[in-house]
Design brief:
Shape of chain A: globular
Number of helices of chain A: 10
CATH superfamily of the largest domain in chain A: Fumarylacetoacetase-like, C-terminal domain
Largest interface: A-B, 61 and 62 residues
Oligomer: homodimer
Number of domains of chain A: 2
Helix content of chain A: 10-25%
CATH topology of the largest domain in chain A: Fumarylacetoacetate hydrolase, domain 2
Distance between the termini of chain A: 46 Å
């Protein structure tokens, strides 16, 4: 992914709200998503300022001069076909859409819908969902809490990106209410019970949508991995810590995670993120050497500088008009393992990935306390409760709480771009 | 699922090869699968003796008088739509197909294709795949090997069916070659390496295809769980034991399992299995009481008596015309947790299941040594190698080995039905 004319900070759009310098969706971003059209069906849109560009309508009216497979894929009800076409097609579409929206081009207001009045769906049909555990700070914090007498990082952690398969069917789009799950819990002082989860948590993550597939039996090399990724979304991997604690040995988290995961509706493409690539944290002096299949080429800059903020508002706060409280602020570039390394490891066995598959980063936590990416860490397993403006405290999430993750990229010489929000309100257990 | 006229042992078919008493596919079975038609597309078939009934052709020609949603679903390219229609529709289709094929009905040979000349595909598009760990004998054996100083069963095992999410994209149909995966391995005496798996194993399992969906947030009660299951297939969950050993802490098996899982092409319906229901093994006197959400109604007989046999033949044996060697013989009824309990637990959080989702039982091992369901147990972690007729020994699978699982149900007063085979040949690492 290279920086080209579509990233020029001088570019402006005939959509005025895209030119404020504060919007998540300037013309340098152009993320893709699926909106509900008048007939109730999904349709591909691109976010621009406060509007959504109806891509299929732009193709039909020849405002966008795209043809063949690309035109067909962009007229579909999900992004899967478009994702499957590969990086050259993604670039062609981006360039054409940028040209359509730039200030010098004729206004085409009939192709726009107000975002505030638009319902979004999942961007793709997600075949398989995998979640990793790529933040050293998160893994270390969890290790300290749950294995206080041992080394906080398990022996494999520095050698490979630890991951596990997740549940695709319960991934929902931002704005979907989250019902507190029931589950089997084991109180310290008695036998297990089946009851509503008491230790409900969120996890600040990012998700990478796979675009280009690999055939079964054919690993994706570390040098090619970035070209297989279409783009990123914010991911909130809701977690039931009490279910998890009782169930997770020896096969890993299962019911603790499968009731819901929320993603933001707009997929920010790797092309849009090209100006924000970085090297990620250096490996420490006594860290083991990486095996070749996980070693990026020198200067490949596979990390991405995305800043994420988490806000919480209780039902009482929202009723009182109190602003949501910021819980944390972290950055994706703090991950010790990049999405390229995750994908290279995931496919190193020959595991086939398909367009629309989603790879989660795992909880993004930073070295500072203010950069911890879940309640488990923020409240240190409930021992350090958080004071809310409504006078209550939080160890874990309560019914009525709304959790919102936002994210953006900022760098000198580039235009700020954002991800929009990823939010959900906790409903009582049914 | 009840026993009705379609199970009558006196029923015979005008397809002579269905009446031998030895075929897997008598008229009392009628399993569904997807075959490749002349145009290369998938089409629904029903196995009968040595033939495949072309169901869509039977509907088109009005040999099968089915209409509306059911006719439409049975004319599709996969079984997902048919699976989603629910138990009443499955019964209607079974009755109509049984009537079409019974001896008294007119011969309709033009609706048949020889099975030996037919290529099969996966029966459904598998959205999510979950694997359980429901055999007490398997879990105990593995516990003994890997935690020799502790209790072989972990504390949660007797309280809930332990499971984890698997990889759907690498599930293949019987007959697909399996390339030995590469992976990160950790020799006991040195740093990790990236190399071909050295401890390649199979796991004898059964898979349950979900038919009726449940909405997100709505658990499936234990009393309704059986009605949500469309049918069973044989499942071979190929496993890379050396990858597994190094990677699985703390989030469970991942790359050790995601390179391939093989299923048999014919889905034997729960209706066909109705005569073979049983109570499963009794819980032991000192086992804890089950929580209500996992307690089946008295007399519900949620276990199923299916006998499975595993055979191995090396490349040398096949060249020499030596018969495959039987490695083990076990029964699904030995599982301590039924598919009803697995489904009730899986959805107890509100996790949504969709038509075509697959639930694996976990390795089916019995109390005897001859009923161990994988090489890890059979060779006791490689310490008790198995002698093959070609003069070689096996601790784990070698390149060229063909592993075949077959399965059948037999009971006095009922007709023997079978699953066909589930096989794969190991190819060298690429």
């Amino acid at each position: 992914m290279s920086i080209d004319a579509t990233h020029d900070p001088g570019l402006r759009s005939w959509v005025d709200s895209a030119n404020t310098g504060e919007t998540d969706f300037p013309i340098q971003n152009l993320p893709f998503g699926i909106f509900v059209d008048a007939s109730g069906r999904g349709r591909i849109g691109v976010a621009i300022g406060e509007y959504v560009l109806d891509v299929a309508a732009a193709i039909e009216t020849e405002a966008l001069l795209l043809q063949g497979d690309l035109a067909c894929a962009l007229s579909a009800e999900s992004l899967n076909s478009f994702m499957s076409l590969g990086a050259a097609s993604w670039r062609d579409a981006r360039t054409a859409i940028s040209d359509l929206l730039r200030e010098e081009a004729p206004r085409q207001d009939r192709l726009l819908r107000r975002m505030a009045e638009t319902t979004m769906l999942l961007p793709a049909s997600i075949g398989d969902y995998t979640d990793f555990y790529a933040s050293r700070h998160h893994a270390t914090n969890v290790g300290r809490m749950f294995r206080p007498d041992g080394d906080p990082l398990l022996p494999n952690w520095l050698h490979l990106p630890v991951g596990y398969h997740g549940r695709a069917s319960s991934i929902v789009v931002s704005g979907t209410d989250i019902k507190r799950p029931h589950g089997q819990l084991k109180p310290d002082d008695g036998p297990p019970v089946y009851a509503p989860c008491r230790l409900l948590d969120y996890e600040l993550e990012f998700g990478a949508f796979i675009g280009s597939a690999n055939a079964m039996g054919s690993p994706v090399g570390i040098g090619q991995a970035m070209d297989h990724i279409f783009g990123l979304v914010i991911l909130n991997d809701w977690s039931a810590r009490d279910i998890q604690k009782w169930e997770y040995q020896p096969l890993g988290p299962f019911n603790a995670k499968n009731f819901a995961s929320t993603i933001s509706p707009w997929v920010v493409t790797m092309q849009a993120l090209a100006p924000y690539r970085s090297n990620g944290p250096a490996r420490q002096a006594d860290d083991p050497a990486l095996l070749d299949y996980l070693t990026p080429a020198t200067g490949s800059s596979d990390a991405i500088d995305v800043i994420a903020e988490v806000h919480l508002s209780s039902a009482v706060m929202r009723e009182a008009g109190t602003a949501a409280m910021r819980l944390s602020r972290g950055t994706l570039a703090d991950l010790s393992w990049s999405f390229s390394q995750m994908l290279a490891h995931h496919t190193s066995t020959g595991c086939p990935m398909n367009a629309g598959d989603l790879i989660g980063s795992g909880t993004v936590s930073g070295p500072e306390k203010t950069a911890r990416g879940c309640m488990l860490e923020l409240s240190w397993r409930g021992t350090e409760p958080i004071d809310l403006p409504d006078g209550t405290q939080r160890r874990f999430l309560q019914d009525g709480d709304e959790l919102t993750i936002s994210a953006f990229c900022e760098r000198d010489g580039a235009t700020r771009i954002g991800f929009g929000g990823c939010s959900g309100v906790i409903l009582p257990a049914g």
